[in-house]
Automatic annotation (TrEMBL):
<keyword id="KW-0812">Transmembrane</keyword>
<keyword id="KW-1133">Transmembrane helix</keyword>
<feature type="compositionally biased region" description="Low complexity">
    <location>
        <begin position="73"/>
        <end position="103"/>
    </location>
</feature>
<feature type="region of interest" description="Disordered">
    <location>
        <begin position="63"/>
        <end position="110"/>
    </location>
</feature>
<keyword id="KW-0472">Membrane</keyword>
<protein>
    <submittedName>
        <fullName>Uncharacterized protein</fullName>
    </submittedName>
</protein>
<feature type="transmembrane region" description="Helical">
    <location>
        <begin position="40"/>
        <end position="59"/>
    </location>
</feature>
């Protein structure tokens, strides 16, 4: 083997080794670029999470009462008992305290409620049951933050269940059906027994 052949073989070996090294460098650079992109994406996601969480935290701090959930049974309300009057000439203050108690009871239970108020909740309701396109509601029964009503025109024996949300003090449509529509929503049997269709 001559000098020229050895030189050619050496250059060939050098070219082959350089090819693998070059490929390894390219893979390493691509891997570093991907790692940087991942870090940037994670940083952006973390920043977005912080930006989304700040208003929620601020709103929860400004709310004086913790949210109340519909599934919890309503707490019994205390009613004021009139104090016996010692003087027959003075008017009693019982009517004003009774009306204040009734007003407070309405704010916490939502009852009584009008059919028009409940009907206004239906356009955006997704109840999973066909309750038609009612133009009004009939046979509204309201008890402790829950109400049931029949749609007019009727769709079989379907009734609609509504719930009163606190602290928002708004009515929402919860479910509809011919029977058993309260099972997942009204957990207190003392309440569900007073609502037709439950």
């Amino acid at each position: 083997m001559g000098l020229e052949d050895r030189l050619r073989a050496g250059l060939s070996d050098l070219a082959e080794g350089a090819g693998w090294t070059d490929m390894e460098d390219r893979v390493a650079r691509a891997s570093r670029r991907m790692a940087i992109r991942r870090r940037v994406a994670m940083s952006v996601a973390a920043a977005a999470l912080v930006v989304a969480a700040v208003p929620v935290v601020l709103m929860s701090r400004s709310s004086p009462n913790p949210p109340d959930h519909l599934g919890d049974p309503a707490s019994p309300t205390e009613t004021a008992t009139p104090a016996p009057s010692t003087s027959s000439g003075r008017p009693s203050s019982t009517p004003s305290s009774a009306s204040a108690s009734a007003s407070n009871d309405r704010e916490t239970t939502g009852c009584p409620v009008s059919a028009a108020t409940l009907l206004a909740t239906l356009p955006n309701a997704h109840l999973g049951t066909d309750f038609g396109h009612p133009t009004r509601l009939s046979e509204v029964t309201c008890y402790k933050r829950y109400a049931t009503a029949l749609p007019v025109p009727p769709v079989g024996s379907v009734r609609i269940l509504f719930g009163y949300t606190l602290p928002e003090r708004t009515w929402i449509a919860l479910n509809a059906g011919p029977a058993g529509m309260c099972d997942r929503y009204v957990l207190d049997e003392a309440i569900s027994s007073r609502l037709p269709g439950c």
